[in-house]
Design brief:
Elements: H1 3-15, E1 20-21, H2 46-49, E2 59-67, E3 83-92, H3 97-111, E4 119-124, H4 136-148, E5 155-159, H5 161-167, E6 174-177, H6 179-182, E7 183-185, E8 198-208, E9 231-245, E10 248-262, H7 263-270, H8 283-293, H9 301-319, H10 328-346, H11 354-365, H12 370-374, H13 376-405, E11 406-408, E12 411-414, H14 416-424, H15 430-440, E13 443-444, H16 448-467, H17 480-500, E14 506-511, E15 516-521, H18 528-543, E16 547-554, H19 555-561, E17 575-582, E18 591-594, E19 613-622, E20 625-632
Parallel strand pairs: 1-2, 4-6, 5-6, 12-13
Antiparallel strand pairs: 2-3, 3-10, 4-8, 7-8, 8-9, 9-10, 11-12, 14-15, 15-20, 16-17, 17-18, 19-20
Length: 633
Amino acid sequence: MDAGQIRKAYLDFFKDRGHKVIPRALLVPLNDPTTLFTGSGMQPLVPYLLGEEHPQGTRLVDSQTCIRVQDIEEIGDNRHTTFFEMLGNWSLGDYFKKEQIPWFWEFLTKEIKLDPERIYVTCFIGDEAAGVPRDSESAEIWTKLFTEANVQVKQVDIDSEENGAKVGEQGGRIFFYGNKKNWWSRAGTPGEMPAGEPGGPTTEMFYLFPEIAHNPEYGEKCHVNCDCGRYIELGNSVFMAYVKTNDGIKPLPKQNVDYGGGLERIAAASLDSPDVFKISVLWPIIEKLETLSGKKYDSYTNAMRVVADHLRGATFLAVDGVVPSNKEQGYVMRRLVRRAIRFAFDLGIEQNFLEQVVPVIADLYKNDFPEVAKNRERVIDALIKEERVFRQTLRKGMQTLPKLLKKSDDEYELDGDVLFKMYDTYGFPTELTLEEAYKQGWGIAGSTQKRFDFLLSEQRERSQTASKGTFKGGLGGQTMQHKKYHTATHLMYQALRDVLGNHIVQNGSNITEERLRFDFSHPEKVTPEQIKQVEDIVNEQIANDLKVSWEEYPTKVAIEEKGALGQFGDRYGDTVKVYKMIADGADKPFSFEICGGPHVDHTAQLAEDGKRFKIIKEESSSAGIRRIKAVLQ
């Protein structure tokens, strides 16, 4: 089965078991300032896993596109990609372990026809100090399934990856790991969780590729969580079963299931290949690179993997509205494109290769994701433009480098600080900087690479620190202040339409505890007089103390019959949740908008402590898009 067939089989399999298929969320999360990208299938659904009702019910399934740039330096091995699809299914207070584990086993062994002898699993070893028991229930279910398939079962305690590298597999089939591997919460281990935080044990599934020899670089012995590549993870089921209270860990009243598994890795296992780049949504890109370069994948494996992965990720970012820039998501997109161009140099592809590769990627996804086909030409144009900009950067870099290196009239020396500045500030590949230095006969300080590595590690540490908690559930916007600003955004959206016209459509928003940011379609600058009008309308509606409530409607009814507002480019399932804000005795609501929450109960809460709504900035975001920042002060 190719990747598209597996995706369809997975959605159909769980649809037949009462699940509603929900559309993928955008790669750029809405109303979540804590993370740049959607990094897992769970991320858009965390509010529902924590108790909010989902308009599609208690059984959900999807294939979610994801970006994880923390893995960018690992691209080049057989299984890591920055862009991937996560197959997911969820139970929101419905079924639990005894349904989830057999279902996924059936999907892998009967639908995908993977060899049961090569499937290995992990379970939670327990945390006695925190009062969380060993997950013997999951292990017993797995034991029964393996036994029925005539697979020998031995349970082995590993606890940590460090210990796994010492003791190895020991002939095991079911491995018990501790808090760092087989426990999920947004706040770490059971002992670290604050009161009110939910969490639960996980069980992971791995597929063995016995032809791959263990690499001792990753530890003395191999085990299922080893990074040597012999085992590839197929998925992870989180059983959210507990909540931390002031009296310790207690069972949750409603237990949830969250499964996530990489489509690319399952497709590789289906091909009986440990190399995910040989699957149907990546290999055609590799073949195009072979044609353009005249080189073979087996000889230029690393470079072709990086180019294929990065351009696939950049293509989907462009589909979801991201444009290359020096900030936030745009910076990451620019880095992916430029890194791909850099590795294309290694292949001998030095001119205009994006216009030949990006259409291949778009065509791979056009049938399964209509938005790819719809935006095909815009995406190709955006990426070609970035390639031209980068080639200008390369030319400028060649002019800038000598000025940074010059020590005296006839002496030039490259050091780690300059190498890093060229890389970080000017987007200039380090290999090209070094190559130019060698070519010109310039001196190179002995500590250059060591200093560069130090500065790069500092940068990565800053990035990781910034991204910690960005997705450990991703729920960074659930405080009362977030709810106030979210509610104010609804009021301002309608006020903008009242003042500027009904052509105003939301194009994105970002809400923190300090302010709201709102992007909208409008061809010209909003005047000070218009801004004052919008502020007055919002403050009037706050003073009117509108009641905030929601109802579910069929999507078509909500939009076409009821006139609910939505976000530009967003897609919805069969039913949607619509929030309305209406004054007592009024005939119609002031605001009527599709949204998932959270909001205050009535608008007067926004005026607590005498605060008023104030627009503090209005500016251009991009062509035809304006941006407003506003506060309650």
